[in-house]
Structure formats: structure tokens, C-alpha cells
Design brief:
Blueprint: H1 3-19, E1 31-35, E2 38-41, E3 46-49, H2 52-55, H3 64-74, H4 87-98, E4 104-108, H5 111-130, E5 136-140, H6 149-154, H7 158-161, E6 171-174, H8 179-185, E7 190-195, H9 211-222, E8 225-229, E9 253-256, E10 267-271, H10 273-276, H11 292-307, H12 310-331, E11 335-341, E12 344-349, H13 354-362, E13 365-366, E14 368-370, E15 374-377, H14 385-399
Parallel strand pairs: 3-13, 5-6, 5-7, 7-8, 8-9
Antiparallel strand pairs: 1-2, 2-3, 4-10, 9-10, 11-12, 12-15, 14-15
Helix pairs in contact: 3-11, 4-11, 12-14
Amino acid sequence: MSVSSNNVTQQLIQLADTHIAHTYTRFPLVLVKGEGCRVWDIEGREYLDMLAGLAVCNLGHCHPKLVAAICEQAQKLLHVSNLYQIEPQIRLADLLCQHSFADKAFFCNSGAEANEAAIKLARKYAKEKYGNDRYEIITMTNSFHGRTMATITATAQEKFHKGFEPLLPGFKYVPFGDIAAARAAIGPNTAAIMLEPIQGEGGVNMPPPGYLEGLRALCDEQNLLLILDEVQTGMGRTGKLFAYEHFGMEPDIMTLAKSLGGGVAIGAMLAKDEAAKAFGPGSHASTFGGNPLACAAGIAALSTILEDGLLDNCRMMGEYLLTKLVKLKSKYSFIKDIRGKGLMLGVELEFEGKDIVNACLDRRVLINCTMDKVLRFLPPLVVNKEEVDRAIGVLDEVFDPNNSG
């Protein structure tokens, strides 16, 4: 590391501390370049990215098809109002509906906005169909749905609520995986049940067998909408295009963001016609939602996932990574559990994982820790065996500094 490059890093960090709101605890690392599963910092050091921008860069960094689509669109049209028809938006909506349960798409800019749209649609639909007293939404403990007032209220984790009370009325929380609790929570005001099919930020928590199917049946029985937040699980992350496909059921509403644009900010709410018809002109909107650039990126990202074998690679590499992690579990008694699906895997430890993440960073492998004790692996769907082996080797070394390999 040269003195001059180190000075640049420190200068940038000082500028960040001065001018950027302190809403993240950031690592002292300035990343400036990416390719596939690798990123480089401003000092030229290479890192293996097993986090993919928190499940955003599913194609890896700077995938040629994505870059080409962005460049081509940027030379033609960046933005026009949704007062007019937007060709890339139309084509992306068509692709998403062709490959999912949905009939309609609403585009926005983030997962929180997509979940806001879902909450609004569920309330409006229920009020129009059943009366003004139908507005309540049941969500799950350890969920995460976003940072707006409505979505932090939907998020059943107290740590996200502190300092922002009073929260919005109209939400009830029940334990994830407990159908009986969901049934007991339903009352005359209930409009919908909302959950992640696999909880991400909450600890990579898998649903028990039959749980999602049971919620679908319960919603049908009680005339409720079922909303699936697939912001993290969607776009191939679990080995299928959408996680609900693993469970033999369909939602009424689904939210997407993160990897939908392959790294370009975009969100979407998908819905069946029956629910979607509650939104009419003026009922909801987004100035930048579905803009030409983001939708061109979305088309390229989705087409690449479908056409380039990324779902197959996700399943194969997910199994390979899972096998390697299970071997580590047999070696280290402090690993409590390994869980997840596809390339969305969590390693639960008996102790806090912050130091493990930092030690991996020192060895130039990027992972993160959620719920204090769950190491989270979210590599790009293009990851290969050599890259998985490198990550596992580093983790093994960190778990046992005396390990010689």
C-alpha cells in the first residue's frame, strides 16, 4: 500500500464523516471497481464479494449485458414522466408477469417503496370490497420490510422502532412459522397477511414445511390478501426466479427490488388483477418509478438470469456452499445452525459475529452478520467453485487461526 493511496482513502473517509449522514457503520474501505464476484478498493486491493451489495448484484459486478443495456439506454432516453407510455417499462412489466403469478406491475425505486405500495393496495382493496373497517395487516416477528414509517411499523423488530414512535396503527405481529398464531390474530379489521418467504435481515430464517401453503389456505378461507416480500429472495436468489415457487403456492401481491435492476435502483409491486384493480389513476404514483434507464437494466438483468443458466448455477453453487458450510459445522462446535436456500445462506454462531466479519475483511473476503450472530452469505449468482472454496478457506482460517488448511 502506498502512502499516497492510503492518504486518499483517509481523505475520503474524513469527507464522508463530515458530509454524509451517519446512518451506517461503514468499514474503512473505498470500493471503486467490480467485475464478477470481485471488487477492488481505491488502493488497488482485490476482494472476493460474497455479499453482492446485500443481494443486489445477482449478475455479479458490471456484467457485460447489463452494462451494454444501460449504456445503450442512456444514449437514448433517461427519463420521461409516467404521464406517457414508457417502452422499457412496458417490456419489463410484460416479462415479470409472464414469469410470475402476476397480472399487473407497479414500478418504484426501492424495496421500501414497493412494500409501501403493497400496504396501500391491500388497504384500499379491502376497504372497497369489505368496508372501511378492513385495514389491518398481520406481519411476522423478525421481519424486515423497509425504513419508511409504514414499513418500519410492518417490520416486527423493536430495534427499528426506537425513536420513531408513535408508529402507524393497523399492524399486528405474530411469530414467523406459527400458523395457529396467525389464525388467532385475524379479526374483523384484518385485510392481509404480509411476510418474507425466507427472512433475510431477521437471520436467514426458513419457513417450516407447509407454513406458506397453510397461510395461503388461511387467507383464502378468511378472504384476506397474501403479500410476499421478495425484495431479497426474488430474481433467482434462492435457485428459482421467485422463492414462492419452492412452496407450491402463489401470493396475491409480491414486492421486488434489490437485484431487479442488477445494481440500478428499481422496485416493483406485482399483483393479480383482482387486487390490482383497487389502484386507479391518482391513487398511487412515483415520479422516477419505471424510468427508462432502470427498466432497461431490469430487462437485461431478468433476461440474463433466464437465458444464461444462472438459476442452475445458483442451485449447484448453493448446494456446494451449503455442503462446505455443513462440514465446517461438524468441525466447530460453536456453529449452531446452517440454513437457507440457494445462494442465500446463514451460519448461526454461539457468539457475536462482528469479529469474524472483520477478520474475513482483513483476508479480503466480504460477508456480513445479521441479528448479531448470523453470518450471511449472498454471493452473486455467477459465483464458481474456486470462489466458494476461497471463501470457505478464509472462514476456516478465521475460525481456527492455527489451521494450516
